[in-house]
Amino acid sequence: MRRLVVLMMIMIATLALLIAATPSAAQAQVSVGIVVGIGTPPPPLPVYVQPPVPGPNYTWTPGYWAWGPDGYYWVPGTGARTGAWRAMDSGILGLG
């Protein structure tokens, strides 16, 4: 009888150690925040005559309102090289 009690105590202690040593499932926390700010809209787009592009293979890139520390400011439009001409100018194709 005493032997059975000792054996039961050993089994209970072993089971307790196994439960304590088993890693628990990892807990993950996910937080998603969405902020929507309703502020001052940009001023209306200015109306101006589009200047001629600097040359062939150029296209007009229109201006836009950008936001800075002092509020909105106008970024003027410009003529930009198009397609393969732009790639040649930047050296992407190794031809320029």
Structural features, described:
It is a single chain. The chain has helices at residues 2-21, 83-90; strands at 58-61, 64-68, 71-75, 78-81. 29% of the residues lie in helices and 19% in strands. The longest helix is centred in the first third of the chain and has 20 residues, at 2-21. The protein contains two helices and four strands; from the N terminus they run αββββα. With 96 residues, the chain is of the alpha+beta class. It has a domain at 57-96. The chain starts with a helix and ends in a 6-residue tail after the last helix.
Could you give the distance between the termini? 95 Å
Shape: rod-shaped
Backbone structural class: alpha+beta
> How many helices?
2
- Most strands sheet: 2 strands, antiparallel
Assess the beta-strand content as a share of residues.
15-25%
The rounded Rg comes to: 35 Å
How much is the average pLDDT?
78
Order of the strands making up the biggest sheet? 1-4
| SSE run | HEEEEH
Unreliable segments (pLDDT under 50, ≥5 consecutive)?
none
Helical proportion, percent range: 25-40%
Number of beta-strand segments: 4
